[in-house]
Write a structure and sequence with these properties.
Elements (H helix, E strand, L loop, with lengths): L6 E10 L2 E11 L4 E5 L6 H8 L7 E6 L2 E2 L5 H4 L4 E4 L11 H8 L8 H11 L1 H5 L10 H13 L5 E5 L7 H18 L2 E6 L2 H7 L2 E6 L2 E7 H6 L1 H8 L5
Parallel strand pairs: 3-8, 3-9, 6-7, 7-8
Antiparallel strand pairs: 1-2, 1-4, 4-5, 9-10
Helix pairs in contact: 3-6
Protein name: ABC transporter ATP-binding protein
Family: Belongs to the ABC transporter superfamily.
Pfam family, one: ABC_tran
């Protein structure tokens, strides 16, 4: 018998006013997987991520996490369920130091793990260790993205939601960030749901992937299957191997 997914999205429809943003979306994320959602800008990828987090809420359909229906829960309750999000646009606390940002992320976790967790994120992102007294707003874009992910990790999530982690970053930084995600999955078994425009990197990293067009899932398969599909290559990979 197939095990229940950690995160299950079924028939989700989300609206902005009268505009339909998501049209009957079905997605599964199993424990220990990296699952990616790719699509063009404006396809609805970030809307799905925000709907999972409760803002906006789905008008129709259901979202379950660990078998519990979270569709209509407020965001703050969803975020208490071992789910952490690193949202699009690197929303760190710019006036706080790197260390203070990480302490904010750790507020939901057991304080006994703080130092071990700190060492783990500093091992993943050594640049943050060098910059720990620096204000978040003075970091480079790549460093801010590392801090956003590290802050999410300090909450010891079972499920990490990453929204466009490579957006606007130099190729070398993108590689560092994707390597860190792979390492977390490999060594800690962290489950990751990744929304990403950089289809090539995302599909190479992911166990499974989905393609979204105009708020609808049009394709799904393993990362390598989707990488080899002609329509995926034509739409997302031509000249896109950053």
């Amino acid at each position: 018998m197939e095990r229940e997914p950690l995160l299950k999205v079924r028939g989700v429809e989300t609206y902005y006013g009268k505009i339909v943003a998501l049209r009957g979306v079905d997605i599964d994320v199993h424990e220990g997987e990296i699952v990616t959602l790719i699509g063009a800008n404006g396809a609805g990828k970030s809307t799905l991520m925000m709907t999972i987090c409760g803002s906006p809420q789905a008008r129709n359909g259901s979202i379950t996490y660990l078998g519990e229906d979270i569709t209509n829960l407020p965001t703050h309750e969803i975020m208490r369920k071992d789910i952490a999000q690193s949202p699009e646009g690197r929303r760190i606390f710019p006036r706080m130091s790197v260390m203070e940002n990480l302490q904010m992320g750790a507020a939901v976790a057991d304080p006994a793990h703080f130092h071990a967790d700190l060492e783990r994120v500093f091992t993943l992102f050594p640049r943050l260790k060098e910059r720990q007294e620096q204000r978040g707003g003075t970091l480079s874009g790549g460093e801010q993205q590392m801090l956003a992910i590290a802050r999410a990790l300090m909450g010891r999530p079972r499920l990490l939601l990453l929204d466009e982690p490579s957006l606007g970053l130099a190729p070398l930084i993108v590689k560092q960030i994707f390597d860190a995600i792979a390492e977390l999955n490999r060594t800690d078994g962290l489950t990751v749901f990744l929304v990403e425009q950089n289809a090539y990197h995302a599909l190479k990293l992911a166990h499974r992937g989905y393609v979204m067009v105009n708020g609808t899932i049009t394709l799904s398969g393993t990362g390598s299957e989707l990488l080899s599909r002609e329509e995926v290559k034509a739409a997302y990979l031509e000249g896109g191997r950053h």
